[in-house]
Amino acid sequence: MAYPYRVVLTEAQRAELRGLVGSGTAPARTLTRARILLKADHADGGPGWSDAAIAGALDVNPSTVLRVRRQLSTQGLRATLERKRPDRVYERALGGEQEARLIAIACSETPAGADHWSLRLLADELVRLEVVTTISHETVRQTLKKTKSSPGSWSSGV
Fold first, then answer.
1. At what angle do helices 137-146 and 96-107 cross, to 10 degrees?
2. Element (H, E) at 107
3. Do 54 and 102 reside in the same domain of the chain?
4. Contacts of 72 (CB under 8 A, 6+ apart)
5. Is residue 4 part of a domain?
6. Count H helices, E strands: the chain?
7. Which residues contact 23 (CB under 8 A, 6 or more apart)?
8. Is 43 helix (H, G, I), strand (E, B) or coil?
9. Do residues 49 and 73 share a domain?
10. Which domain covers residue 105, as residue numbers?
C-alpha cells in the first residue's frame, strides 16, 4: 500500500528511537510516538508495518498513526517526539491587588447570619465591593488554594 507520508528513518534516527524506547524514561506519549515511527519505518531493515497493524499492536487509533507519519514528514523528528506548548495564554482572573483584597475579606469577620466564609459568599462580597465585576466561586477556591495562609474551613457552599 502506498502511504502519502512514508516514514524512512536514517540509522541514526532509528538508534535514537530505540534508545528512547529502551530506556523507558520518556513520557508515555513520546514513547508511543517513537514506537509508531519504528514500526512504520520503510527504510532498508525497517519493518514497514501498515497503519492498521501498528494501531492494533500499540493499541492506538489508526488516525494517530497517520498524524505521527504526517508530522514526521512535515516537521521532523524533534517536533514529532516533543510535546507542543499550548498557543493559548490565559489571562489571570484576579491580579495581585485583587488577590490581596480577597485574602483580607476572607480573614475578616464573617457576615451576619453566617458562621464562616463560604466560597460563594466570598465571590459575592468581591462583586458587592466592586473589586471585580464577576467571579465564580471556583476561581475564589483556586486563588485561596495558591496562598499558604488559606484556612482549612473554606466551604464550597453547594
1. 90
2. helix 96-107
3. no
4. 5, 7, 37, 80
5. no
6. 8, 0
7. none
8. coil
9. yes
10. 96-146
Q: How far is CA 53 from CA 25, 73, 108, in A?
A: 25, 20, 64
Say how far apart CA 30 and CA 59 lie, in whole Å.
15
Question: Is 153 part of any domain?
Answer: no
Same domain, 17 and 58: yes
Give the residue from 65, 62, 60, 56 showing the smallest Cα distance to 5.
65
CA-CA distance, 95 to 93, in Å (whole number)?
A: 7
The count of structural domains within the chain is 2
Residue 96 in this model has a pLDDT that exceeds 80: yes
Under 8 Å between Cβ of 117 and 106: yes
The pTM of the full predicted model, rounded to 2 decimals, is 0.60
Same domain for 76 and 50:
yes
Q: What is the pLDDT of residues 67-94, one digit of tens each?
A: 999 999 999 999 999 988 888 888 888 9
Helix 28-40 with 51-58: angle, nearest 10 deg: 140
Q: Answer whether residue 91 is part of any domain.
A: no
One domain, residues 75 and 16: yes
The CA distance from 139 to 68, in Å, is 37
Claim to verify: residue 46 and residue 70 sit in the same structural domain: yes
What gap in Å lies between CA 52 and CA 63, rounded to an integer?
A: 9
Does position 150 have pLDDT exceeding 50, yes or no? Answer: no
